[in-house]
Amino acid sequence: MSKTFSFLSGLSLLVIMFAAVFIVSLIYSANNRSSIKSYIFQINNASTQRIGALQDINDISAVDLRNKLIKKYVSEYFKVIPGERDVQNRPILRSLSTQAAYNQWQNGEAETIAKMSEKNMFRRVRITDADIATMNMPSGHNYKDAVQAEQIFYSIHYYTETWTESNNMATEPIYESGVLYIEARFKPGIDENLNVKSYLESGRDPVGLFMFQVTNIGDKLNK
Question: What is the pTM of this model?
Fold first, then answer.
């Protein structure tokens, strides 16, 4: 009886060992077949926020290019980054503004941004093409055919989302809207006074290559 029990016990141990080896081999094999895939995450689900193919500037209409530049400008004008060290220095905003317009921003909204940044607040801006309107465009004006860039006033209705605590997932954003009035010169195309190769190699933002410059600023907030 004892021999039979010993035989069965030994057989059971062998079965358990073979089962363990088989399971370990499966895990090892699965690990070898595993792969890491990278994904690009977008801010929201809007198709306009998705990365697409590079576009030829000649295929972009003058109004579309103008709107893209205005959106970039307003985004830089209002954005708040938690703990930003030098709020007064924003190269993109500076390159798209005359010195007078840049001084207006530094002495106005930049001071508000600095206080918000010190409190680790975060703010972003949303604008659609429909939110951009011209106020004094000459009748029949054509951006491409204009001999020189005309100074035109624009009304931009913008929407902001502000988080009072940047690292707290439970914090709900505060939604506000307002109207920013700017006077700007715009003519489609690359600024001929710039060396594109040297400009891009310097690491500066490509937005500064275009003939767009804000000359005057005003605003009206709606809460």
Answer: 0.72
